[in-house]
Design goal:
Number of domains: 1
Order of helices and strands: HEEEHH
Shape: rod-shaped
Number of helices: 3
Strand order of the largest sheet: 1-2-3
């Protein structure tokens, strides 16, 4: 019985702090959108910048470097170029997820909440 009362008291405390938590969550969302990560493949041939809210901000392809790696008439080289882009994007997304996970965990600790589960942003 007393455990139930403790749980209710804990829930009441969380409900009281809910507006503050919601405001902090909105701040965290804005912070994630402003955090940038970068990834490159092919010795700088392809560079991707992503935000920690998991959006691709830019993909830059260096024509000089790509020109030495890829023959535009070769289907194999075309596939390699596509793989370079996909690799840079995938690495940027992994880095963005790591930054977001760390940022969300820090925000949760600041609010006295347990850290989000490891799979929250996907694995």
């Amino acid at each position: 019985m007393f455990d139930g009362l403790k749980n209710l008291a804990g829930m009441a405390s969380i409900m009281k702090d809910l507006p503050k938590m919601q405001a902090r969550l909105e701040e965290v969302k804005k912070e994630l959108a402003s955090l940038r990560v970068e990834s490159e493949t092919g010795g700088g041939a392809v560079r991707v910048i992503a935000t920690a809210d998991l959006k691709i901000e830019s993909i830059q392809i260096d024509p000089a470097v790509m020109g030495t790696l890829v023959d535009s008439n070769s289907p194999e080289d075309h596939r390699m170029a596509e793989e370079l882009v996909a690799g840079a994007v995938n690495t940027a997304m992994e880095r963005a997820k790591d930054v977001a996970k760390d940022h969300l965990a820090a925000a949760a600790r600041d609010m006295g909440l347990p850290t989000p589960p490891a799979g929250l942003l996907g694995s």
